[in-house]
Amino acid sequence: MLRTLRKIDSDVPSEMLFQTKQGKPYPQPKNNSIIFRDYGFLRDEFSLRKMSKSVSVVAKSNIRFLLRALFGIGSRSECILYLLTHEAGHPAEVANAIGISVRGAQDALIELAESGLVFTRIKGKRMMEYWLSQERWWKFLFGMNFEEIKKPIWLDWVSLFSALMNIWKTLNEIEKSKSDYMRSSKLRESMEMINLEFKKSQ
């Protein structure tokens, strides 16, 4: 996904990653970090202190990392996580929640169903939805009785990051406007949409 954000071949000028308290960009560094420059940001080179630790997959709140270790980083782990935190889901619903195409979600769910550990059923007249045994999966993943497990709540990261990105975009736009009325109007219009995205993420 980060590849789509690369600006190394773009005509869009890079901008400073950090700003002062007054909102002004810091002076351009002498030695730019290549990593950040490739994505359109300027900052000093830095050296990793190598003090970070691997994410603990024992905690239920980190179940996404546990599933990625099992299935790899991709649609399968995200599909399983969605089904573990919902009663069931159809491909379009799952695709919208995890941020991939409907075809991609459908293919992943079909492959998972072939394992015999993810099941299908018809909802309504024609809608196919997928589900799994919550008790069986949670016991396998954490070795605990289903009644003892406090399941994590699904967080819609797609909507959350979309809202945060729109806040950033709006603040940059109103900064360029000279009219207080236009700034107020743009801010009010954007906040309505951002508020809806925040509500979706909960």
Describe this structure in words.
- The chain is mainly α.
- It folds into three domains: 1-47, no CATH class; 60-152, Arc Repressor Mutant, subunit A (Orthogonal Bundle), CATH 1.10.10; 158-201.
- It contains eight helices and four strands, in the order βαβααααββααα.
- The chain has helices at residues 34-37, 63-71, 75-84, 91-98, 102-113, 134-142, 157-176, 180-201; strands at residues 15-16, 41-42, 118-123, 127-132.
- The chain has a two-stranded parallel sheet. Strands 3-4 form a two-stranded antiparallel sheet.
- Helix 3 crosses helix 4 and helix 7 runs antiparallel to helix 8.
- The model has no long low-confidence stretch (mean pLDDT 84).
Summarize the structure.
By secondary structure, this protein is mostly helical.
Provide the fold topology.
Elements: E1 15-16, H1 34-37, E2 41-42, H2 63-71, H3 75-84, H4 91-98, H5 102-113, E3 118-123, E4 127-132, H6 134-142, H7 157-176, H8 180-201
Parallel strand pairs: 1-2
Antiparallel strand pairs: 3-4
Helix pairs in contact: 2-3, 3-4, 4-5, 7-8
